[in-house]
Specification:
Number of strands: 27
Strand order of the largest sheet: 2-1-11-10-12-13-14-15-16
Structural class: alpha/beta
Distance between the termini: 61 Å
Helix content: 40-55%
Number of helices: 20
Strand content: 15-25%
Radius of gyration: 25 Å
């Protein structure tokens, strides 16, 4: 189904147009008592309109901010569209955040209402509403728990039921017709790698123009499909998944909401999705899981697998194959690649990677196995996609070609600058940060990059993360970390060395591998003991030396500390989008790192 996203004044008008066309066709799918059940386009529209009127009955007005705190489920999109229908502004929040994060978002956005999915999340969020302008709480799941806080509590189903037969549909329609593409549709708080999260104001037009780019990118992959299935599991509070749902809406796709990361592979085999998006951390763990699982296979399986990888890499690199290799590669398609794809449902047209840099070796490994991986690039401030790899010609060491409707130029210092309808309206209540980010209409991304000979964009580093050593050389820490993290024994790392003579690192061992090593070497079965063990440290040192062989002299890691716990969202060392918070890690381990010099 082809639609022109440029013809719509808002996301809601796009949705209403699709409801007219697709009526009783299935749209949003969720698990109910162990089975996927769907809501049709008209059923979703009915709920959207009723909730919109319910919000008006609570006194929510045009321009008011409403927080959505929920895991991915149909109610998320229904709430989002209902808020936008009345000219309100959606403020998504991560379910993994803390009460103090919610407090910052609620107070900073001056939200007047919060929609919360579960009792557990309400217990975290409600204390954050005290002494704020947020006086209304809508609870999605039925729960007998009573809250004592001086707030107005409304039940989702009751609110929809009460407003199902209300007659002011005309007012809603009038309101939607008056909306402009430049109106702010949502405020998405950045993940805060460098401090307090900032509220990025994204317009309807910013997200719709991104959908135009996505449609252009994927048109050849969907042209023969009569039904298109997406599996949604990246949080909808992430601008990447948030905008993507409107592209899915525009092409008339069916959206299945995964039950969670632990059920992802099960859901994939049930749903048989054509597309799925994820952050690089997911692909890293996939690479580890496949390669570790292979060690338990028989000799013949291992031979087939290594042949598939070898020939797949050759094909990707456009290297000439002999007739025998071509024949063998065709056989591997049937006995290895088909089997791998089947693990993911068997219908995959593309896996999309974004949110951070994809490890080239991981990308090549999965591509050789027949999993088509499209790496893209963007940030919340650009709604979010700036570029992506066209499926017709994938270059894994790049983030692809620039999206239709977007302009990119490289500043003299190498910074990537972006201009177009997709850029933000600014940071909410932060004119200073806005004027330092948008200069003469160009968003200064803080990323360093270059174009290759085919006009594909390459990201070389974060401007803020670049390490300048004592000799004045610029070093990309992410490049070094990427090489370390691909080693099976290393789970995570962070490189350090500003104004120093050499680099040092924090290494987080892979727990499974570490305990296996302990068992094989008659050591105590405890990670906290192992990180202090001389023999174990020696083994990690050998791995780092092996990595150093593939790095230039200034990039080599000379010394390291081992820690016994991962960087996580819970310990505040990672953002909800799985990026490392360097400033936080330095504040905790700075002294230990300095002691290595």
């Amino acid at each position: 189904m082809s639609i022109n996203f440029d013809n719509f004044n808002s996301v809601v008008s796009l949705f209403n147009q699709q409801c007219k066309e697709l009526k009783d066709s299935p749209y949003l799918w969720r698990k109910v008592e162990g089975k996927f059940l769907s809501l049709s386009w008209l059923e979703v529209q009915k709920k959207v309109n009723a909730l919109a009127k319910g919000l008006i009955s609570l006194g929510i007005l045009k321009g008011d901010r409403v927080v959505i705190l929920s895991e991915n489920r149909p109610e998320w999109q229904i709430a989002d569209l209902a808020i936008m229908s009345i000219g309100g502004i959606t403020v998504p929040a991560y379910t993994t955040s803390t009460t103090s994060d919610y407090k910052h978002i609620i107070n900073h956005s001056e939200a007047r209402c919060i929609i919360v999915s579960s009792n557990d999340l309400a217990l975290k969020a409600i204390p954050a509403t005290l002494n704020s302008k947020c006086k209304n709480v809508i609870l999605i799941d039925e729960d007998k728990k009573k809250f004592d806080e001086p707030l107005f509590f409304a039940n989702w189903n009751d609110l929809i039921e009460q407003n199902n037969h209300s007659t002011n549909d005309n007012d809603l329609e009038k309101n939607i017709k008056l909306q402009k593409r430049t109106d702010t549709a949502c405020i998405i708080y950045t993940s805060g790698t460098g401090g307090s999260p900032k509220g990025v104001m994204l317009s309807h037009g910013a997200m719709l123009t991104n959908c135009t780019g996505a449609q252009e990118l994927l048109k050849n992959l969907i042209s023969d499909l009569s039904e298109i299935r997406f599996l949604s599991w990246l949080p909808l509070s992430h601008s990447y998944e948030h905008t993507l749902q409107f592209y899915e809406m525009g092409i008339g796709a069916q959206i299945y909401y995964a039950e969670g990361i632990d059920k992802l592979l099960v859901n994939m085999s049930e749903v048989k999705p054509h597309f799925m998006t994820a952050v690089p951390r997911f692909y890293d763990s996939l690479h580890t899981r496949i390669s570790q699982g292979l060690k338990k296979q028989g000799k013949l399986s291992q031979l087939f697998f290594s042949t598939t990888l070898k020939l797949g890499k050759k094909k990707y690199n456009n290297q000439k194959m002999t007739s025998m290799e071509k024949f063998l590669n065709g056989i591997m398609d049937k006995i290895v690649r088909k089997k791998v794809n089947k693990r993911f449902g068997g219908s995959l047209r593309a896996l999309v990677s974004g949110g951070a840099a994809l490890n080239y070796e991981v990308g090549l490994y999965l591509t050789a196995l027949g999993l088509p991986l499209l790496q893209g690039y963007g940030q919340t401030e650009t709604a979010p996609v700036v570029s992506a790899n066209p499926p017709e010609r994938i270059k894994l060491d790049t983030v692809g070609t620039i999206f239709k409707g977007t302009e990119v130029k490289i500043a003299e210092d190498g910074e990537i600058l972006v201009r177009g309808e997709n850029i933000m309206n600014g940071y909410w209540n932060d004119p200073k940060a806005t004027s330092s980010t948008i200069v003469n209409g160009w968003v200064h991304t803080g990323d360093i990059g270059e174009f290759d000979e085919d006009s594909y964009l390459k990201i070389t580093d974060r401007k803020k993360d670049i390490i300048v050593n004592a000799g004045g050389d610029n070093i990309s820490p992410s490049r070094v970390e990427e090489k370390l993290n691909i080693e099976p024994e290393i789970s995570q790392s962070m490189v350090y060395g500003d104004f120093k003579n050499y680099l040092v690192a924090i290494i987080v061992p892979d727990k499974e591998q570490a305990l296996l090593w302990a068992k094989n070497n008659n050591k105590e079965n405890s990670l906290s003991t192992l990180v202090k063990d001389e023999d174990y440290n020696k083994m990690i040192k050998e791995i780092i030396s092996k990595v150093n062989n593939n790095l230039s002299v200034i990039e080599q890691v000379r010394k390291f500390i081992l820690i016994d716990h991962e960087f996580t969202i819970e310990n505040d060392m990672m953002t909800p989008t799985m990026k490392v918070k360097r400033y936080k890690i330095k504040s905790v381990f700075g002294d230990q790192l300095e002691n290595l010099y």
